[in-house]
Amino acid sequence: MSQLSVAHLIGIKYLNKNDIDLIFKTADHFKEVINRPIKKVPSLRDITIANLFFENSTRTKLSFELAEKRLSADIINFSASQSSVTKGETLIDTVNNILSMKVDIVVMRHPNVGAGVFLSQHIDAKIINAGDGTHEHPTQALLDSYSIREKLGSVKGKKVVIVGDILHSRVALSNIFALKLQGAEVKVCGPTTLIPKHIKSLGVEVELNLKKALEWCDVANVLRVQNERMDVNYFPSTREYTQLFGIDKALLNSLNKEIIIMHPGPINRGVEITSDVADSTQSIILNQVENGVAIRMAVIYLLAQQIKRN
Hints:
Elements: H1 17-34, E1 48-53, H2 59-70, E2 74-79, H3 91-99, E3 105-110, H4 115-122, E4 126-132, H5 138-152, E5 159-163, H6 170-181, E6 185-189, E7 205-206, H7 210-216, E8 219-222, H8 238-245, H9 249-253, E9 260-262, H10 275-278, H11 285-305
Parallel strand pairs: 1-2, 1-3, 3-4, 5-6, 5-8, 6-7, 8-9
Helix pairs in contact: 1-11, 2-11, 5-6, 5-11
């Protein structure tokens, strides 16, 4: 069987096109599994996975847990708010304590950029980055691309606009890397204050007019405004943001074609997107959730194949 070219899933920027193809092919298989009456496979019966979440997460954590259970892995769940981290324990100490329980794979979300890279250099376990600060969120980008491929047949040559808070979004960066790697055209759209200064160096166009961006694209991936990461005001008011960058059904109906709407969640309904858009036939938001489990099963399975059993 083919193997991933990487020992960990720390970021999309470390993957190549073959890695993405292999993950998608494996996810296709697992998507069949999770639609069967019996949704479990015994593939990872001898693998122990620790989920370390140093930041709050509901959807990503549940998706990883479900993926691990579907593969029959043993799971340790760890939440930083209820741990010795709050007493000043270091990341390495925390992880080493967990590894002493003979853990094979660590799924980690951490507020600091590069936490996954740091960990992979210091401990002997496979690392899956479930989000590091405002840097990367690789499994989200993979499931987003996989959802586009499922809906449109391929990612190559498709026009994708990422709308919203690009500056604070790890989803945006990972998506840009993944989409470019697969040959898609990418634009970003949002208030100038929420677009990183060096974004064009990633081969991405900036479009400040939402309607023009939507007229151009095949797919709009809509991000929420991450108020929890903002220490200053990046725009005058939520109301003004919604007027300029919110997507409602009237706007979609005014376009000269039908586009696909995506959202990584959680949705601020009525801010970046209205309910009648989120719940419309153009939205593939619930497909993304289902595909997230299949993609995470694929990533965990492929990394587990590299673990040499003594």
